[in-house]
Amino acid sequence: MPFSSELFFTRGLRIAGILVLALVAGRLLRTLTNHLIEHAAAPTRVALLREQQTRTMAGILYSTGTAILATLALLMVLGELGLNLVPVLTAAGLASVAFGLGAQHLVRDLINGFFIVFEDQFVIGDTVRLGDTVGRVEQFTLRRTVLRDAQGALLSVPNGEIRQVANLSRDWSQQFVDVFVPAEVEVDRALGLLEAVAAELRTDQDWVAALLDGPRVLGVESFGPAGVTLRLQVRTVAGRQHDVARELRRRIKARFESEQLPLGTERSADLQTGTYGSS
User: Fold this and answer.
1) Residue 167: Cβ within 10 Å count
2) Residues 24-55 pLDDT 10s
3) Does residue 152 share a domain with residue 137?
4) Residue 114 domain-assigned?
5) What domain range is 220 assigned to?
6) What is the pLDDT of residue 48?
7) In angstroms, rounded to a whole number, what is the distance separating the alpha carbons of residues 140 and 105?
8) Which of 8, 223, 246, 253 shows its CA 20 to 30 Å from the CA of 26?
């Protein structure tokens, strides 16, 4: 029984060695990727963002490395069993071509998802604008991004359809507040009241932590027969621009009422806002 002895003792040992080496390499790969995540962990916001990025990259490295190790181990085992690998490799090549042609959208999603992670365009928890959709990133994989919009709906966006990303949560946010003043109100007096309101908010200890610059009165934005539009600008920490703008509006209205000065009531006189961010 020389053939059985060779099969069970020689080839069997080689196959077992291949499998053991593949398992050990998989363990080492898992340890390496976990080590990368541990080095990125820290309590600061920037470090937490970096941790999320490295966690995603580590997952990509582990899944890709595991697939490569499994493929190599399978080919080596088949070789030890005496199988001709040429037809197997040819069939695998044809299957990969067919899969690539039939899954072009999936491949595009995965590639785009990889570059989103690699370039640190956004992470889970960021508020982003993807095309016409604005929402908070609830889930992210290489294939899709899941957003929760202002109405609370969950929107699933394939990464391959993402052409432009506006990250509204990075570094700082900015808001413009426009105030329409009727023509009968003296412009300089209205500007003086706005300066006083802005100065009070800048020194209010309840709001100073949210402010980075301003509020500042920029001056007259536009004017017409009915009156003038005055503009204020405020720059805040990321995500606080709407809170600050609402408080600023409340104080402006209260101050104008205390001074018995009217504010515009026509549609064009509504307080208008614009939001910008830096990433």
Assistant:
1) 19
2) 888 888 888 777 665 545 555 556 666 666 77
3) yes
4) no
5) 172-278
6) 60
7) 17
8) 8
